[in-house]
Amino acid sequence: MSKRDTGTEDLLADLKGGVLTLTMNRPQARNAMSDAMNQALARQLAAAELEPEVKCVVLTGAGQGFCAGGDVKGMNERNTDGGRGASLDETIHAQRVNQRATAGMLFKMPKPTLAALPGAAAGAGMSLALACDLRIMARSAFMTTAFAKVGLAGDYGGTYFLTQLVGTAKARELYYLSERVSSEEALRLGLTNWLVEADELAAKTGEIAARLAAGPQVCFRYMKENLNRALGGEVDECLDIEATHHVHSASTADHREAAQAFVEKRQPVFQGR
Question: Under 8 Å CB-to-CB from 70, ≥6 apart: which residues?
């Protein structure tokens, strides 16, 4: 196994047998995203797209979780201290660039991508999982959109990917109500391809990834493009409008209240502004 320097401990990268495994590594925060993690993920995916040694990409999380999405505690700190000074347009542009380089790349890169979920995939974490071609879940894992609970519209392509997988009515239900989707329900809905016991996740992931890495790579390249075109929608347009709406909703009083409530371990009181 060849370990790769990602530039941060927040993302680990290993290449073995043509399989590049990217591990989101903030287990103390349920692998919530950090700027360093996102930037490293973008760099690793960009490199993997062009490296002939990489046949398949696996995205997973360290410890008991996959990814809790955005760091709500960090959001609350930025809300409290007035933010980082970037203009709204600059923030939207940065969000668009990062979404295309991460979720967009997982979806569009001409190589199979596989998400392995040892635990919760929430918010943008769920979006990243759904951006992959295939998913494996441990029985104890679950998914949730989570955005409504923190007063955000949603990002990283989740609205696009979820709608394509389960249809618009179910996607709206899951976004509006933010209920948990158990691994069994995820399998029934088609949100995951395989469901295994927690102690079998690594072996099953290795088995599927090895088959993909040993498969016909040129065929897979064109097969993936065909399958993506068959969806009909334009993912970049969805990613861009999501970025705009997500950043705008991050400036609302409802989001600031929800982030503060999260830190204070209480239910938020939304005011619709």
Answer: 32, 33, 123, 124, 150, 152, 155
Q: What is the pLDDT of residues 182-239, one digit of tens each?
A: 999 999 999 999 999 999 999 999 999 999 999 999 989 999 998 888 887 678 887 8
Task: Give the pair of three-digit tokens for residue 134.
Answer: 């295939």
Residue 232, helix vs strand vs coil: coil
Q: Quick check: 62 and 120 in contact, CB under 8 A?
A: no
Strand order in the sheet with 2-4: 2-4, 11-16, 19-24, 56-61, 113-117, 134-138, 194-196
**Architecture of 2-201+212-264 per CATH?**
Alpha-Beta Complex (3.90)
Rounded-to-10 torsion of CA 49, 90, 246, 109: -10
Q: Tokens 């389960």, residue?
A: 166
> Where exactly are the structural domains of the chain?
2-201+212-264
3, 146, 134: which is closest to 67 by C-alpha? 146
| Cα–Cα distance, 215 to 218 (Å, whole number) | 9
Decide the pairing of beta strands 113-117 and 134-138. Answer: parallel
DSSP at 14: E
Q: Work out the widest C-alpha separation in the chain, in whole angstroms.
A: 54
Residues 73-123 pLDDT 10s: 777 666 666 556 789 999 999 999 999 999 999 999 999 999 999 999 999
Sole residue written with tokens 């409530």: 261
Q: Which two tokens stand for residue 210?
A: 């090895």
pLDDT recorded at residue 86: 83
Count CB neighbours of 250 within 10 A: 23
Report residue 119 CA to chain centroid gap: 13
For 119-137, the pLDDT digits (tens) are: 999 999 999 999 999 999 9
End-to-end CA distance of the chain: 51
